[in-house]
Amino acid sequence: MKTGMRHIFILLCLFLMANKSEAQTVFPPDLQCVSVDNNGDIVLNWSLPVNACGPFNAYYIYRSLNINGPYSIVYTVLSQFQTSYTDPVSNGASTTYYYYMASDFNCPGALFLNSDTVDNLDPVTPQINYVTVNTGLAQINWQPSSSPEAYGYIIYQVINGLNIPIDTVFGKNNTTYTDFNSTPASDSMSYTLATIDSCINTGLINDFPQHTIFLDDTVLRCSQLVILKWYTYDKWQNGVQQYDINVSTNGGPTGLLKTVGAGIHTDTLQGFNDGDVLCFTIIARENLSTFISTSNEVCVTLNVVQPANNFFIRNVTVIAPNKIAVHYSMDPLADITLLEIERGVDLNSFSTLAQFAPPGDLSVINTYIDSTALTGESSYYYRLIATDSCSAKDTSSLGKSVLLSGYAFSDLSFYITWDESFFDFGKVLSYELSRDDGTGFNPVASLTPDVFVYEEAVTPTTTPCYYIDAIDSMNFPNGIKDTIHSRSNILCLNQPSQIYMPNAFAPLGKNNIFKPILNVQGVKSYSFFVFNRWGEQLFSSSKPADGWDGTFKGRYVPQGAYGYVVNVLDENGKNVQAKGTVLVVR
Fold first, then answer.
1. d(Cα 329, Cα 312) in Å, to the nearest integer?
2. Which H or E run includes 520?
3. How many CB atoms lie within 10 A of CB 250?
4. Smallest Cα–Cα separation from 459: which of 406, 499, 511?
């Protein structure tokens, strides 16, 4: 074993620095290795020095039983080109001897150097730093051997407890080896090594081999889980501090997903999507050290049963008499085999309306048309239920239609009311009322969310039609925001069929015609009669535009009370009649 010591006298060094332009250096032989022969003798081997100072005299071999001396010359080499010597100690296998060499050239004033000190022991076994997977291949890294005679290293693969030599690395400071025949993606691979000197003397094999971390995965389709299992890394001197679980998703950069303790070698992961391409690696970190060991990379394209995540009713709106459109959306990757829509008149009781196959494109807002809704009689709550291929069910959010109702009064006023718009994740912004006067719908009023009644006394028609738009702001948990218009049924209000009669008129005054005022839709038949007190008929007409002028046979009737009867049949087949007396004033 070389000590790395070269005996340089301080005075000579100072002399050399002061006279560096004149002083020469005499180099010793390079004592490369010392080995023990079969009979116990010790064989020294060296390489020749290069010296350009004076003629050769000798090489001196020094020996001691203690590394710190004292040393004595055991042999003088008189041949300049001799490169070995056998020291007949006979007990070299059981006793440690230390050697160094020096050169003797006729160079007065030169600086004479000694070789490294070498012993007859085998080269020191190096310490393994780690075994890892690098670019898909197993790699071992170690500390340089402390033996100065270290010339290289024999690499062993450990298979079933046997150390199988696979390669040799030359150079004391070459401390990394990649096994290009390794298959760490198939199983863990274990390695160790030993130091050799230039005489191919081999030191002891490191009896603490280290191995790659083998990572494997299992995908549970119905649970949407990925289970990782890996081999523990158990040969570090300081032990494992932690394991880092790293992942790359869909070709993105690899990053830390989570960290687990040293005693854990399995983990269950979730939160990924069907179709994701995931690549996992495990990194073991040594306590009190910067050394790491990386596992093989495991890549998987997830084929899990994706539930109907983000399953929302997006709108419920009346699109025609007795037709309601229910708009819905869900995760476009959802693995759905059946959809079911339910309807209820309140939040507590729902019944199945229909079952149907999921639409082909789940990336858009889809629509179901309810053609059995009594839109003029009730509002309805809707929800959908999705069944996936693992028979698991998910229920959507809720949405409700709006019912508009009202009354028309005989004084030509109208009363309109509606129930509250309701959506999970929705907030009413306003209610917008529109009216059709016979020329199309036009806005009438914009009402705040807390108003559910509207009244008006005068309209351009006695049979207006109305609908209301509920404007809702939608704010879904997955970050989607939307503003929707949920339209009610169309409500048409008809004034009740009535006949209005004046109670007096003056034939010779300003209001000199007596006739009914009709509030009737579609007059199919009409009759109007006036009588005196004795029942004599004074006037009759079948035309609504005709009235009595207060005369009978060309002469104005006397002042007094006169009876009348009006009969009208409207377009709905309803008969309306008015009877009474009118006072004729002169």
1. 6
2. none
3. 11
4. 406
Is the whole model's pTM more than 0.85, yes or no?
no
* Residue range 322-393 in CATH 2.60.40: yes
User: 316-327 burial, b if ≥16 CB within 10 A, otherwise e?
Assistant: bbbeeeeebbbb
Choose which CATH entry (1.20.1270.10, 2.60.40.10, 1.20.210.10, 2.60.40.1470) describes domain 128-211: 2.60.40.10
Assign domain 404-492 to a CATH class.
mainly beta
What's the pLDDT at 4? 42
Give pLDDT tens digits for 401-435.
999 999 887 667 889 999 999 999 999 999 999 99
User: Which tokens go with 584?
Assistant: 């004729």
Contact between 102 and 112 (Cβ < 8 Å):
yes
Q: What is the pLDDT of residues 167-182, one digit of tens each?
A: 999 999 999 999 999 9
Note the Cα 420 to chain centre separation in Å.
36
Which of 299, 251, 303, 311 is CA-nearest to residue 274? 303
**What is the model's pLDDT at position 272?**
87
Residue by residue, what is the 3-state secondary structure of 476-524? CCCCCEEEEEEECCCEECCCCCEEECCCEECCCCCCCCECCEEECCCCC
Q: Write the single-letter amino acid at 87.
A: D
List of the chain residues with pLDDT < 50: 1-21
Q: Specify the pLDDT at position 21.
A: 38
Which H or E element spans position 2?
A: none
At 110, phi and psi to the nearest 5? -80, 160
| Cα–Cα distance measured from residue 530 to residue 155, given in angstroms and rounded to the nearest whole number | 130
**pLDDT computed for residue 360 by the predictor:** 94
Residue 358, SS3 per DSSP: coil
